[in-house]
């Protein structure tokens, strides 16, 4: 199996603070890769570098065979992104949001309508396409963001906390959509999540980052075996000394959710 994403000696410094320290890893084509770590570990900084939002201080990133630093446009065309905070236009319909994205990504005009329809069908929102996004629930918005990330046919989808702030039933539905994209469309998924049991259930490969360094990586079974633990959550605790759902983390999630709700309410 080939690697769709290859990262070598990636480092990011903010002045004299090093947020990501010389990390290297590969993501196999067609796999689900979970990137886990406590708050402030360096996950978002890494995802931003992988998706060309942030320039690495040093290191190499290859996406779908393209150098993410030197062939940015082709690298960008190879991936879709769903960030933690909503970035949909609430004053447009679901359909209009997706079309807008298709135009930005230069999807040829004659293919546009068909691709938008398919993307909305995949996440089960075709029948609600004419609704304004401001009428959507949190789960529907997240599904719409996934549809939007699919319209230019990416080879790899980056999902930063795709289920944060959603109720358990909606989380399950989002994971079902993600799994079917992976299994039926062969799309590679790179995700971060605070829900260890969800990572354990869906991911083929896990990498755990702490203080900017990858401290463990492998399949769930390999990690449990090496750490002599019964669950990924216990392994995480043993490796980082911190529960991913400890007080600080929970408040971190709450803060982010509050921030994104405030932003939504302002719209
Ligand atoms: N622009 C910046 N300038 C200075 N420091 C930064 C900047 N962005 C991130 N950092 C710092 O880098 C470290 C890693 O942050 P990052 O957001 O990547 O962590 P994270 O693992 O994504 O955490 P979370 O789960 O809270 O999103 C943190 O100590 C953070 O304060």
Automatic annotation (TrEMBL):
Q: Which GO terms describe its biological process?
A: daunorubicin transport; doxorubicin transport
Keyword Translocase (UniProt): yes
Looking at the record, the residues that make up the ABC transporter domain are 5-236
Keywords linked to the UniProt accession: ATP-binding, Cell membrane, Membrane, Nucleotide-binding, Translocase, Transport
Where does the protein principally reside?
membrane
Q: Where in the cell is it found?
A: Cell membrane
Q: Has UniProt tagged this entry with the keyword Transcription?
A: no
The cellular component terms of Gene Ontology attached to this UniProt record, alphabetical and capped at eight, are: plasma membrane
Topology term for the membrane? Peripheral membrane protein
The source's superkingdom equals Archaea
* A molecular-function term among this protein's GO annotations: ATP binding
Against NCBIfam families, the record matches this protein to: drrA
Which family, according to the similarity comment? Answer: Belongs to the ABC transporter superfamily. Drug exporter-1 (DrugE1) (TC 3.A.1.105) family.
Q: What is this protein called?
A: ATP-binding cassette domain-containing protein
What organism is the protein native to? Methanosarcina flavescens
């Amino acid at each position: 199996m080939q690697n769709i994403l290859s990262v070598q000696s990636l480092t990011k410094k903010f002045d004299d603070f090093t947020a990501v320290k010389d990390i290297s890893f590969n993501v196999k084509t067609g796999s689900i890769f979970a990137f886990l770590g406590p708050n402030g570990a360096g996950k978002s900084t890494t995802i931003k570098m992988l998706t060309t939002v942030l320039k690495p201080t040093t290191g190499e990133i290859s996406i779908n065979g393209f150098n993410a630093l030197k062939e940015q446009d082709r690298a960008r065309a190879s991936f879709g992104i769903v960030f933690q905070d909503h970035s949909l236009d609430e004053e447009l319909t679901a359909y209009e949001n997706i079309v807008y994205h298709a135009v930005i990504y230069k999807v040829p005009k004659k293919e546009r309508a068909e691709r938008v329809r398919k993307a909305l069908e995949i996440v089960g929102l075709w029948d609600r396409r004419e609704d304004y996004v401001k009428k959507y629930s949190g789960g529907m918005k997240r599904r719409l963001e996934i549809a939007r990330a699919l319209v230019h046919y990416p080879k790899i989808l980056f999902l930063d906390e795709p289920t944060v702030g959603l109720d358990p039933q909606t989380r399950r539905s989002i994971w079902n959509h993600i799994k079917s994209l992976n299994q039926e469309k062969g799309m590679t998924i790179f995700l971060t999540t605070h829900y260890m049991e969800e990572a354990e259930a869906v991911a083929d490969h896990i990498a755990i980052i702490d203080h900017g360094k990858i401290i463990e990586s492998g399949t769930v079974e390999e990690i449990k075996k090496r750490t002599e633990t019964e669950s990924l959550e216990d392994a995480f605790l043993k490796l980082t000394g911190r529960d991913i759902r400890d007080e600080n983390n929970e408040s971190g999630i709450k803060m982010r959710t509050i921030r994104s709700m405030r932003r939504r309410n302002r719209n």
